[in-house]
Amino acid sequence: xxxxMIVDDEPFAVKYxxxxxxxxxxxxxxxxxxxxxxxALHKFEEGKIDLLLTDxxxxxxxxxxxxxxxxxxxxxxxxxxxxxxxxxxxxxxxIRKGGIDYVLKTEGxxxxxxxxxxxxxxxxxxxxxxxxxxxxxxxxxxxxxxxxRDYLLQLAQGEVDSLDARIRRFDELEIGLxxxxxxxxxxxxxxxxxxxxLPGDKxxxxxxxxxxxxEYLKESLNFAAFPxxxxxxxxxxxxxAVEERTVADEQAYKLLAGNAEIIQNATKSLLKxxxxxxxxxxxxxxxxxxxxxxxxxxxxxxxxxxxxxxLMRELSDAAGExxxxxxxxxxxxxxxAYLRNLDLLETYLDNGEREACRNxxxxxxxxxxxxxxxxEGELLKLELITTMTAFFITYINKRRLASLIGAAFSLEAxxxxxxxxxxxxxxxxxxxxxxxxxxxNGRKQAERTTDLIGRIRQYVNxxxxxxxxxxxxxxxxxxxxxxxxxxxxxxxxxxxxxxxTEVRMNRSKQLLRTSDHKIQDIAALVGLDSAAYFTRLFKxxxxxxxxxxxxxxxK
Length: 555
Hints:
Layout: E1 2-7, H1 11-22, E2 29-34, H2 37-43, E3 51-55, H3 63-73, E4 78-83, H4 88-94, E5 100-104, H5 109-126, H6 129-156, H7 163-172, E6 184-190, H8 199-217, E7 221-229, E8 232-239, H9 245-271, E9 275-279, H10 289-302, E10 311-313, H11 317-320, H12 326-339, H13 342-350, H14 354-369, H15 374-398, H16 411-415, H17 424-462, H18 470-477, H19 481-492, H20 496-514, H21 519-525, H22 531-542, H23 546-553
Parallel strand pairs: 1-2, 1-3, 3-4, 4-5, 9-10
Antiparallel strand pairs: 6-8, 6-9, 7-8
Helix pairs in contact: 2-3, 8-9, 12-15, 14-17, 15-17, 20-23, 21-22
């Protein structure tokens, strides 16, 4: 539905044109009427205008001035000037701005309708998906640095695409690394922030450190960098020369290690900020990026010999930790990657999506089943349980759902979950809690929707003689007009304005049967200020005129 505004200082002209347009079955539009430029400007505050039909010559504010203000606020707003011969030159100059047309008043309704069709076609083309994709591609390069950082961070957090998808994304985002080859990793830590204390300053600092590193590495290494969290960053490098893989991997490490201390000194000298670095001992495949960065974080925090400006190499398994099988290592990493995606569970709970919650916990059961045995496995299971418990407690507290505890599940079921050997019983407990929360939210959403529909219908019936535009009703329930229209139609199977028309017709029939009111008075009582339009609408809905209906009901 589009929002169409008609502006003319002659009320009859506005009403006549609005009535004529309302009879067009193909025009799905909300009509806003204004009788001066100033009044139109005031109604601009009620929401976006898609199509403006305005007279040019009006006292106070001309249509040309009004059109300029409309286009300034909504650049995609189409304007149709309703002009006389004296305004023809003005109209011709105005259309050079684009999105503006004109119709001579002497040309009649068909010319106006044709201009509206043309404007609607322009709007449709502009929002066409292919056009959106085309413009998106044209603008993509402006957002590439940010999209690069987001995608690399996604990989670093364990969300790894298939090889084909990764190759395609690297190409789309112009990431200057090879998605097929392993990558050398360096994890950095900002030891002191110096003068870079504000959020905007911190972003600038990350970017400045990246520029310094790139300046020293770009001659021989392909380089990408991104902030990892508050205080840490990641560098990824590959040898630029095409050589036998083992040689290239060794060369990448040597070049990075050889420049690391120089980059540290340059950062301290130029930015007055000390940084620490830990370098992975060997390049890793992209699928292994997340667990290796986690290991580098731990080693940088616990294996450093000085408080700041540390420069170290990744410790081997034998030097840094007990040997673990690859299966156990990746099972642990997979579990943590899963727990980082609890925002997905939050969305499912909020939307009352019970089936999606069940599928998510089925996946959790699989991940829990492959965790290692022994004390290490028990601790990992405890980590999983406490993380999930904390999530549910936070969720309940933030949404004031404490009253649900006891009605749907016990508090003990949440805070005293057993650590089972295979976690299956515990996961079932967690799934049952999630199911209770999702069921509750879904039921409350349905109740709120039912209540909202009831409030709208009550208002329509009580204030039928007043303005009942989509904008007016949406303000009543504090929702946007497009969303309210869509939600009402999805819930009831009937458009909101169709319901308003139905109530008006039913009330009109009642008044025609039971009162002696004149036709024009009945039109006013049901909120239609034009008797002619009321008659046309009544005949369209019932097949007879109001007078014919009245006469047919007389016994």
